[in-house]
Every structure is written in structure tokens, then in C-alpha cells.
């Protein structure tokens, strides 16, 4: 059952982000950026100010649940947030927590799936860094997710 789910995710990613044409992304495709709750409002505003698109690619921001529980980090929630982003075939980036210690637990999960992580910055700063990387990645002949990750490193 897990193999079938993994195969479905790979095929879905190829269909959604692969598209055809020179850019490797289909017309009117949608990509998702997962954002930590503390950075979400700023990320949404920055994306709205950019028109919600990079070229013909539509972007959406999905806000993640808080990872703080009674003043401490909930490691299970950090992992669940990262896994949620990994399981979504449209994910191109993950704007993490402002606190560096929280991000180190999400990093291995995101790295294994080639998802760029933009930690330790405001939502606005992260989006201003991410949008040009996506624009650059649209011209690559590889998956958008991989290309965005490479552009940000």
C-alpha cells in the first residue's frame, strides 16, 4: 500500500509540475508554499502584492498549525508539518519557524524530498527570496521542486 501511495505521489508530481513546453511547468499550474503560522500573514501579503503568480504559475500559501505547546516546541507537530508539505505533490517550498532550533527537526524530512526550506526569517523576507528563485526555476528542464531548491542554495 505504501508503494502504491509513493508511486501515485510521483506520478501526481510529474503531472502537476511537469506539464509540457519549454519551462517544464504546464499552463495555469498551481504550486504550494507551506508556511509556519508566525510567518503566514506576511507571506500571504507578499504573495498578494506579487499578484499571486510567477509567470503563468499560480502560487498559494498554506498556513501550518503552531508548533508551540505551553511555551515549548512540539516536535511531533514540527514533523507532522514537514510531512504534510512532503506529501503534497505541488509543494515547492517550506517557510519554517523563526526559531532556528525548531527548523532543524523539519530539515531532514524536507531535504529528503528536495523541498527548499526558508527558515529563520519573516514571511515577507522569505517570499521576496523565494519568488525570484521560482522564476529562475521555471526555465529549468527538471522538476520545479528540485530547481527551486537548487536556486535557493
Question: If you had to describe this structure to a student in words, what would you say it looks like?
Answer:
This protein starts with a helix and ends with a helix. The protein is an alpha/beta fold and 153 residues long. The N terminus is likely disordered. It has one domain: 3-Layer(aba) Sandwich (Rossmann fold), CATH 3.40.50. The chain is 52% helix and 18% strand.
Examine the secondary-structure arrangement and name the CATH architecture. Answer: 3-Layer(aba) Sandwich
Q: Characterize the biggest β-sheet.
A: 5 strands, mixed
Note the beta-strand portion: 15-25%
- Work out the helicity level: 40-55%
CATH class: Alpha Beta
The CATH superfamily is known as Response regulator
Number of domain units: 1
Oligomer: single chain
Please sum up the structure shown.
This protein is α/β, with parallel strands linked by helices and 153 residues long.
Key attributes of the depicted protein:
globular; alpha/beta; five-stranded mixed beta sheet; 153 residues; two-stranded antiparallel ribbon; disordered N terminus
